[in-house]
Amino acid sequence: MLTAILTGFIFSLLLVVAGKYIKGKAAILSALVPLGLFIYFLQFTRQISSGEIITKTYEWVPSLGVNLGFTLDGISLIFTLMITGIGFLVFAYTATYLKGHEYLDRFYGYLGIFMAAMLGVVLSDNIISLFIFWELTSISSFFLIGFNNKEKASRKSAVLALSITGIGGLLLLAGALILGNITGTYSISEMLLSKDLIAESSHYIIIVILIFGAAFTKSAQFPFHFWLPGAMKAPTPVSTYLHSATMVKAGVYLLMRFTPSLGNTELWNTTLITVGAITMVYAAIHTLFRTDLKGILAYSTIAALGILVFLIGLGTREAFVAACVFILVHALYKATLFLVTGIIDHETGTRDVTRLSGLRKVLLPVAIAGFLAAISNAGIPPSFGFIGKDLIYEATLHFGNTGVLLTALAIITNILLLYAGFLAGIKPFTGKLPQSFEKAHMPGFLMWIPPLILAILGITIGVFPSIVQDSLIQPAVTAMGQNGSEIQIKLWHGFNLILGLSAITIGVGLLIYFLFKPSLKLEKGIAKFDKIAPKSIVESIGYGFGQGSKKVTGLIQNGYLRYYVSVIILFLVLLTGYTLLQNTKYVIDYDSFSELTVYEVLTLLVMAVGILYTVFTRSRLAAVAAMGVVGLAISLIFVYYSAPDLAMTQFSIDTLTVILFVLVLYRLPKYLKLSDRKARIKDGILSVVFGSLITVLALEVLGEPQGSQITDFYAENAYVLAKGKNVVNVILVDFRGIDTFMEIAVLTIAAIGVFSLLKLRLTKKNRK
Amino acid sequence: MKTIILRTASNYLLPLLLLFSIFILLRGHYLPGGGFVGGLIASIAFVLHAFANGLENTKNLIKMHPGFLMPVGLLVAFLAGVSPALISNLPFMTGIWFPEPLAVIGMVGSALFFDIGVYLVVIGVSLTIIFTITESA
Predict the structure, then answer these.
(1) Quick check: B137 contacting A, CB < 8 Å?
(2) Confidence label for B2 from pLDDT (cuts 50, 70 and 90)
(3) How near does any CA of chain B get to the CA of A611, in Å?
(4) Per-residue pLDDT tens over the stretch A685-698
(5) Are residues A355 and A412 in the same domain?
(6) Is the pTM of this model over 0.90?
(7) Same-domain status, A382 and A452
(8) Do A648 and B125 lie within an 8 Å CB cutoff?
(9) Which of B95, B113, B129, B117 is nearest to B39 (CA)?
(10) Inter-residue contact A341 to A351 (CB < 8 Å)
């Protein structure tokens, strides 16, 4: 199973080298990857439907309790089949849709990563690995939305989608960590056993809010829905695959997965019902105001996701059945509609629903696919959608006191969804064919076969619902914690209230479709409300955040090296000084000092003169030379106190430093602007304080008794263990060899930094 | 700084200083010295040459970019660290030695090669920085 998940990643990696071969005629071969996975997962159906749950565990980071545990149960199976099945069709479709595109290989690479990540999400049993795959879907979707990266709108939408879903991912991580803390495990199936522990925990509310945050952002629930319409900037295969059939359903999946362990409480159910209901009605009404086919479909997708969240919130067995059925229904018809839209866009160059008509004359098979999908979307018998709609009404009607209200909301949503589906699936094909579209022609079969397959599937399952009843729906509902009698999904229930409601839905929906005409005017009308829409609010928060960080950065990173140095020194002085004041006894053992010799006094004098000269001279070069004198005097002191290694190093370093300074100063302009009196006094105080601090520190270190033990160890063992007589060198190359290795690595990085900084500037200058 | 005296002297000083730096490098294990100081001395030798003859001439003399020495040095130091693990299955960075001392050089072991790595990195780093600054200033 691990191999199955990794296949997508491996495929993408291979494309890095094999990409140029896949761009041409071989593009269709890439569809074999999802097809193979589809067949692989399909063979588990028998086992799953007999109630088995397949688990595989691989150790990953055992020390942190993070394992790659994978579980294939009813819920996972539905999702894996959707991901790989629709994935196969989308991969094939893309081969023609983006034929000859410069970056087709990249596109397949992102799609492959996305597919693998999505499989990881729905198969992970470990919540941490679920989080990692979850984030991978966000990241791969970022690249796919921004695929047309030369367009500003694409880039903006990609960033928006990434930030919203990325924030959700972080919430998921936080929730996962709390859950892991309470239950002592990161395995989702083991968490199920401590259900009571979680429910009684004082953190229960926080956990639920965090999980909701993750699910709602991913599944585009109100008020986080706004990234989804923007994500439609992506090429159509992406919209089909990610933003209608799979990725946005990850949030729904998360809710389904955690229903058994977190659900069935007042907080859980009420929140989900409320958010789901608001989302579905809000988004369904929005479809009336759109003229772009993709925009219509985007809002109808949000509405459908709202329905799913709403159904999970109802929490009854009937509602879960309805949710599982509706996931499949929606995936089938929405993918079809998107693929059809893609063909229309590809052949006519427009997605404006007010301009499209009569295309059946040139795109007949596509029209059939669109028609069948619209039928299923509308819930007209004998489509699968009809069953789905019936089950929804059944679930809402049987829901206690508020059942009538909830049913009414569901009916409104479904009426508007019907309108949206007809607009996308039927409207472009009916009526008169305008002259401008007469030249449109059928695309390659790879493009029109996939939507046709999906659309026909939607009808076939409607006629023979037993295909999915035992194999998919039953195990999924069981996995959501609802055991009980066998589920019976039927097309015909006899004449009853639900059938009546269905008829009302279809009737009113058709009425709206025929009477209401979408127009640009309406679309502009609703744009006035954009200012109070959640999108603008989030965007202004983002803008404010950017401005705020700009100010802070401007304050701290002002670009003057002298400020950086003083800040660093000041910080060190305050921190060390505070600790010293707190913990020091200030006992200086004067007897331990050796007596001053003439040489030392003379050297100190030279040093003092050098320092004074550095500070007060008006020539840059002289100051640098005086600094060099101070450095050489220090190396003399090292010599007196028998530290020849240090003396040698100090001597060479000092030489090089002076050379460096001279090199830089030599090229500086001749005029000399010295810092003013105030700045010099400030710097002077800081320097004196820093110097005194180091002095105190050195004296304190001398007073510490344990230092000598280390010295003794090195002195005794340098020759015994490391065969060296020069203790300093032995420490450097042997005892602390790894430190030295890191240091030379750092040196290298610094040199590369200097090199690239200066060279980069040079090339810019040259370009001018 | 194109004085004829310095230019003439530097032509003789360069090989002398380089020899001296290698001497410092090799004696490091027993007496004051080592790869770091040795590397600094070697770079000073080249910088002196560059001062006297101009950077271009020094570069022609070295023939390759000094930055190239950095990865080479790191590799040598790393291999010296890994060698005990590869040869005698000892932990990373354990010192291993040839049983007999070599003429002139003395005992040869992984620590010496590690020091050579340090020596090369230091030359590479200091020359890269100084040459880059000289060119761009």
Answers:
(1) yes
(2) low
(3) 25
(4) 999 999 999 888 88
(5) yes
(6) no
(7) yes
(8) no
(9) B117
(10) yes
